[in-house]
Amino acid sequence: MEYKDYYAALGVEKTASQDEIKKAYRKLVRQYHPDVSKHKDATEKTKEINEAYEVLGDAEKRAAYDELGQGRRAGQEFTPPPDWGTQFDFGGADANDFFSDLFAHAGRRSGRGGARGFGGAGGGGGFQMRGEDIHAAIAIDLRDAYQGASRTISLRVPQHDEQGRVTMQDKTLSVNIPKGVTPGQQLRLARQGHPGAGGGGPGDLYLEIQLEPDARYRVEGTHVYENVPVAPWEAALGASVSVPTPSGAVEVTIPPGSQSGRKLRLKGRGIPAKEPGDLYLILDVVLPPASTERAKELYQQMARDLAFNPRERIGA
Amino acid sequence: MVNNNSLSGVLLDDVALTLDELARAVEVEPDWVVRHVRAGTLGGETTVQITSWRFRSGDLVRARRLLRVERDFDANEDLAGLVVDLGDEIRRLRARLHALGLD
Questions:
Q1: The complex's ipTM?
Q2: CA nearest neighbour of A138 among A149, A124, A122
Q3: Stated pTM of the model
Q4: Which residues in chain B are contacts of A207 at CB distance < 8 A?
Q5: Which CATH superfamily groups domain A217-314?
């Protein structure tokens, strides 16, 4: 595995106090928070900062990390010594981070329970502890939300071997996504979380539904929005046009006198959740190019015959 | 070792979480959830009786955000609630702009 420099991630010296680490973390969290940051890589950067602080913000974890990291540089390949880490017991951390990999390689036992915090949950002596829940996200297409889908996901999860040691292993799951899911919903997969300790059952896996960006459709809750280009005469005179939608093509009546931005609601044609959303078609009047003599002539004729002032409302 | 299984989950909006299940999923003590529900920062649609509280997708997402703010900034539940509300509002407005093609 590659060594990760958590001190560099937080921009602090290795000698920084816990208070300095906390201050640096808070500053970076504010700077890169995905809700406020304009940085393109804000989400990735936030993840990196959080992972670093999970370790350096906890004195015991930091001590373990420091012991291993002496003289190492970020990106350097290394394998922890086989007996390393046995004096530490942090329970399970997030499944995919560098630190949890370290402790899995060290072969420590897992056993963090439902309470927040680390430590004190070793797996022996008749002590029984349910495994941790895992939280992850799964990205699907809008069409999958309409029709349901099956997706294969890979997770790194701790597994007990025959000697009761824990190693991080890749686990591949084929997950059925039900029809009608919306972004932000949580899909709970029972007993697919971290293994329990002392005979305790495994935790659950929670998958947050996310939608892949779509060039044509936009989603807000269960409602779906789609821009529909129309010709000026279709907007002005009304027309019946064929429009592709996530649930198939539909014939839509454009009312006469429509303008760009007019919204047509197709009730119940949004995401088919328990309470189905609506599909909104936003008309987008597209002008034919005046690229031929005949086209120019037609535009000139309209200018002469229609006496149309598009700036009347602004007093021009 | 690779395990191949085909699994169907349940949506939390169909089968909601109990108080203990939500606490476990967020890795907090149930008291933390009770405190937030009583402060009005979590579980707006839950009922008065603790034994019948049920939590859905939005509650789980919100609880994890609240915990993050509390832990990262030593915030109390009211301040954490305000920060999460503001974040929710930003996300809602951005989604609205995006839906209307204005972003």
A1: 0.79
A2: A149
A3: 0.73
A4: 9
A5: Urease metallochaperone UreE, N-terminal domain (2.60.260.20)
